[in-house]
Amino acid sequence: MFYEELSSKFKTQSSQDKHESPDKKDQPLFEERDTKCPDFKFVPGNHLWKQQGYYLVCYSCDLSHAVWIGADKLMVGVNKKGKPILKLRSEIGMV
User: Fold this and answer.
1) Residue 68 pairs with which residues in a beta bridge?
2) Whole-angstrom distance, CA of residue 42 vs CA of residue 62
3) What's the pLDDT tens digit per position in 18-62?
4) In a domain? residue 39
């Protein structure tokens, strides 16, 4: 008897869910965002570069970005303007 009552309650709930779901599926999912005020600030200028594998990755900007430098180059430091100094592995003797 308990099982029959439980199953009848479940059937009525699932039938109500079936009536609600087509309306929700027909509506597209979207998010309203104010594109004039982004979540990050991009300030052009100095970047704090660090080499990770074949990439130079910037750690100072809110928006993460990287530059591919390839397998034959190494970052050996930065100049006075903050730009990375890249040298070939053959110049350093790492070949």
Assistant:
1) 55
2) 7
3) 555 555 667 777 777 777 777 766 666 678 899 999 999 998 887
4) no
Note down the domain range covering 75.
49-92
**Number of domains, the chain:** 1
Q: Are 94 and 86 in contact (CB under 8 A)?
A: no
* Alpha-carbon span 83 to 17, nearest angstrom: 59
In a domain, 31, yes or no: no
Mean pLDDT for all residues in the chain:
77
Place of tokens 């599926």: 25
The reply to whether 75 falls in a domain is yes
Q: Let me know if residue 73 belongs to a domain.
A: yes
- CA dist 42 and 82 (Å) reads 17
Euclidean distance between CA atoms 47 and 84, whole angstroms: 9
Is pTM beyond 0.70 here? no
